[in-house]
Design goal:
The protein contains 5 helices and 15 strands. By secondary structure, it is α/β, with parallel strands linked by helices. It has 2 domains: 115 residues, Vaccinia Virus protein VP39 (Rossmann fold, 3-Layer(aba) Sandwich), CATH 3.40.50.150; 92 residues, no CATH class. Strands 8, 9, 10, 12, 13 and 14 form a 6-stranded antiparallel β-sheet that branches. Helix 2 packs parallel to helix 3 and helix 3 packs parallel to helix 4. 47% of the residues are buried. It binds S-adenosylmethionine. The site of S-adenosylmethionine has 19 residues, from helix 3.
Length: 241
């Protein structure tokens, strides 16, 4: 167990973290963008943090005026640290609860949710399934409001897909995925060139989060065919080039 200080507009918090959460918090653009969106939308909300980790965004929501915070995390060790962080930092008048469960299956009846299960092309993590299930069951406002997909041509693409940190700025935009309605599971992008680096990022409050080692590194893909297809949430193995 480690301790990392998170400085936010609603306070400074010395959070209990594991190594994974610590790496995420050190990505300043990622953490800054998500902290800002939570600060902007938590006031008065019944708030749910789906995939809460050890709770940075839950703690911020509780201190940014949320009436109630439900923090869902399926990893038992992280859920224990999350509970300790909320016990220490949630104001007394805020109701909160930690739910150790798969966020695709819980009904938390929140009016605002944040889900930071975002990865490159939304391929490997449960973001799309979690958001779609929440929209269908209780129709919350979803943070982030959108996720951007782009690409950069590669002259010498690797034989097999490879992740690498990259700069997402200046990418050729392909799609803006908005989270106010059901997100399609399938995607298809034209690939006239021999290979591309696919990029995924979130822009919020002047911050551009993505392309780091821990948050949406670039995905370099050889593209001998005319399109690349895949299914969000179903992994790299669902990619067809
Ligand atoms: C990228 S971390 C985000 C942690 C924290 N919300 C933050 O922004 O720093 C995603 C977290 O979601 C959890 N997670 C992934 N899939 C999940 C699922 N289907 N249900 C519940 N938790 C899940 C992981 O264990 C991990 O702790």
């Amino acid at each position: 167990m480690l301790v990392r200080t998170l400085r936010t507009p609603v306070g400074s918090f010395r959070l209990l973290v594991d190594a994974y959460q610590d790496d995420l918090l050190r990505d300043r653009e990622r953490t800054g963008a998500f902290v800002r969106m939570v600060c902007d939308h938590a006031d008065g909300a019944e708030f749910a943090d789906l995939g809460a980790g050890t709770g940075p965004l839950s703690v911020v929501a509780a201190n940014a005026g949320a009436r109630r915070v439900v923090a869902v995390e399926r990893n038992p060790r992280r859920a224990r640290l999350l509970e300790r962080n909320l016990r220490r930092y949630a104001p007394r008048d805020v109701r909160w609860e930690v739910v150790r469960a798969d966020a695709r299956r819980v009904e938390v009846n929140a009016d605002v949710i944040v889900c930071e299960m975002i990865d490159t092309l939304l391929l490997e993590e449960d973001f799309v399934d979690v958001v779609n299930a929440a929209l269908e069951r209780y129709g919350p406002r979803v943070l982030p409001p959108e996720v951007r997909i782009g690409r950069r041509p590669l002259e010498d693409p690797p034989r097999t897909p490879r992740y690498a940190p990259t700069d997402v700025r200046g990418a050729e935009p392909l799609e803006v995925i908005r989270t106010e309605g059901r997100i399609p599971k399938e995607f298809e992008y034209e690939t006239p060139g021999p290979g591309y680096e696919f990029l995924t990022w979130v822009e919020y409050g002047g911050l551009v989060a993505g392309g780091s080692e821990v948050f949406c590194p670039g995905l370099r893909v050889r593209t001998p065919g005319e399109v690349v297809r895949g299914r969000r949430g179903e992994g790299l193995e669902s990619l067809r080039v």
